[in-house]
Amino acid sequence: MRPANDVQGRDPGASRLLVKSDLVSWIRRLMDDAEVIAPAAGAGGDLMFGPVTDPASVWLGPGNPLQPPKQFVLPQTDPIVRIERNGGGVQVSSISDERARVIFGMRSCDARGMAYLRRMQATDLPDDSYLRRADRIAVVTLACTTPCTLGFCVCCDAGPFARDGHDVQLVDLGDRFLAEGATERGRAMVADAPFRPATQGDVVRRDELEREAERHFGDESAHLGAAMRRISTRRVAEELWEAMSPWCFECGGCNFICPTCYCFSVKDRCQDHGWERCRTWDSCQYSAFTLEASGHNPRERRKERIKRRFFHKVSAQYYQRDGAVGCVGCGRCVQTCLGTTDMPAVVAAIRKGVWHG
Amino acid sequence: MATVLTTCPFCTCGCGLHLQADHGHLTGSAPSEHHPVGQGKLCARGWHAHEAPTWGPRLTRPLLRRGGEPVEVSWAEAIDAVVQGLSRILADGDPIGVLGSARATNEENFLAVKLARGALRTGNVDFCLRAGLQPLIDGVAEVTGDPWPPGRLLDLERSEFILLFEGDLAETHPRAASLVAAAVKRGARLVTVGWHQTQMSRLAARHLPVDPGAGHQVIPGLLAAVLDGGSADGAGAVAADPGLAALRAGLAGLAVGEPVREVAAWYASAARASIVVGEGALLPDEARDGAAALAMLAAVTGHLGRAGSAILILPSRGNQRGALEVGVRPDALPGGVPLDDAAVIAKLRRTWSREPSVVAGLDAEAMVAGCRGLVVVAEELPAVLRAGGGGLDALASASFVVVLDSFATATARAAHAVLPVAAFGETDGTTTSLDGRVQRVRECASPPGLARPGWQVLAELVTRFGLPCTYGSIGDLHREMTDLVPLFGEIGEGQLDESWGALVSRPATGPGVHLRTVDLGRRDPVEGPCVAVFDEAFDWGSDPSVAHAPTLCRDHVARRKLFPTGFVEMNRADADRLGVRPGWAVRLTSKHGEVTVPVVVSGEVAPGMARLPFSARDRVGVVLGGRGRAGVRVERA
Ligand code: SF4
Ligand code: SF4
User: What is the pTM of this model?
Assistant: First the structure.
């Protein structure tokens, strides 16, 4: 758990207030300049992120959509190159998406996910297509004052209040929101009316709420750390991976709903006059993920793929490379796993050295 | 970006998903968190449902064969030609038929029935995959008196004991497999019955090995054990059944091994116990009797009719249950009611303003072989006929074949007229899951080119044959179905939209439990140093909506690409003994014939077994002589 914030040392101008009755008009104003994406109750009663048409339908109550907002920076099928027949040859052009967007009502874990993805895409060979889209997206998070049912963000240092990845953080103070601008863009978003300066009391209340929220999780932060030590020093028995292996059904869901997973495949979609080369989500749990053209598959067995997934998510080696664990503690894989090999279950198994199914 | 809630079209578990489209293309699939079956989960197929219509070679314009070549024509021209072609055959009094499909919606299948029994006045209406499913359903029905086996998929999760006849459940019905795993995690005992190691057998408390496809081998033993072991608690309820004595007598003196005895005791003593019959578990010859025997096992132990104790028969593909229930079968009317049901006949007559055909027709195989005129609604014959590619040769003798499909299939290439229809994600309708849950599928993107929703095309054809179909919307069609398909009558107005579809329950109509002797396993014993079998699981790689979608098919494609003319899977020990490495050719010889194929080494195949892909059955099937298995000699070629 990190130390409580020092109220005095903070930039007083960064904390602003929005009375709740002004929320809708603020969202409407954001909609003038950008596509606003927010959680709302969708078909079948499922909470989903989607473009807002009616600001009153934005859901800022408890719960987080099962599908993270990752799809707005990394769509499941993302055309990136157009290939057209041009006389005898072909013409290749890039497809880019630079629409201004605001993702509103994102939770801290997902904001951490966005930060993680951006760091990955920006280093080594920067991915231009990704960055052009992502950099046009402003993120407004809502701090979690009560923990969600399946989440464990405190173990990943990703919540319950936002650490990174956001422009503005809203904290629910009852009849009003405290709005904290975390970036230049964020401070500009909360600079004008109807926002007004926060009082010292509001800021104190905010810190109380953060500490209360963290307390609600209990002291679980050691779990991931213990697993990290074992996995990084190769102290996880092969038999343990073997034992887990029949409990995964290779659906790929853990990767698809994970806010930090980014692996992709490339597929050409046929168009009238050519093709569109698409980046599509892929899963490291699929047997064909590492299948080579020769027919050789370096990770042919499922236990090798499970091991690989957790090595990337929680090993110290990757922690150093990525600057964070590859898990934000959102708890989504607990619900979506078709089997039983979700993050908390496997971490517990690594830590204890036994698998119970 | 558009998002609609729809139902996964693949394995009949019926998981709910949100389908997404962008710029008119289907781009994503996400699980529905509150779906009662899916509960926020999908398998790899479901996660890529959007790929199904996106990547295949699509039919975009009506085609007529002229001078042997397909020529693009307008819809008006195509429909005229179809009406003329079929009318000529009708006028000649030659046999004509309609094939519906497990890939079609309930609405399309209902209209296929209306086209056959109403418009063309024939009982020749069927779908190819019915042949595998019907005997299993009938076997259970014969004992229970209910037209559909008892229980729901979710019963698995709460079962204390599960007896699973495989196949390979994790591959064929992932959501069912995941519910079994959840039960095991909670402490349920799982027993698998099968001939090779599977993912589920690794979770099992006990695996009962049987010969390939011979799940029935353990059933008499289980029955005998519960009957003499005194663990037949429910015997009281069936004690009065005259068949009980015959059942006992038939089993008298049967030697039952300890493992089977123990499994029988587990089943009998569990508070809630389920039986699951997956694909490829019971070969066609034994399917009906095997399913009947399992229902008797449930009856004599008191599990039949007990809440939470299910008998789940898993259809292999998409909308099989729906196709059966709306009447795509030559031996019954919509709703599965008998051909002589006066009330239903009167309703059909009144609604259609025409005397419906209520004669028993030809089944799918016979239709393909014997009809001069054939309308094929979304069936890819080589994928779904037991004869495989051979089915297409039979089709060559038909004088007029009309194919309605979304994909440029081999069947469409053999057709005289091709009518392009919308695929999954491009049309509205309903499908019925193996649970009997009638659920919406919805349009999310438009069909390509001139393709139209299948139900509209069928409605136009029916109208042209003198049965006016004035459906302004699919809602009007639903109203007709609610009226005419007895099961659909239970679906309340608006229910399909308000909640997660409607569960169609089928109240008991029969005289209650009926026991009889079981007659299993009297077939010719298989002789030979090695037993060759088909991998009977539905071959998704041959399904047109899967075959071309990169993620959906790639596991199949890898092998298909490597071994386009088939292969044989063998245990490593056998391969070593023969001195062959993966990819090397071996010759399989049986009393039926011989075939030379490359070897794939697989840990899932037991020593002494040779597994042949069902998908390559027209190339490798000769060695099996049309059966599911045969004794073979294997040599290095
Ligand atoms: S771990 Fe779970 S979510 Fe991931 S692929 Fe396996 S079954 Fe699917
Ligand atoms: S389990 Fe079946 S219905 Fe569910 S997502 Fe997979 S293929 Fe679709």
Answer: 0.93
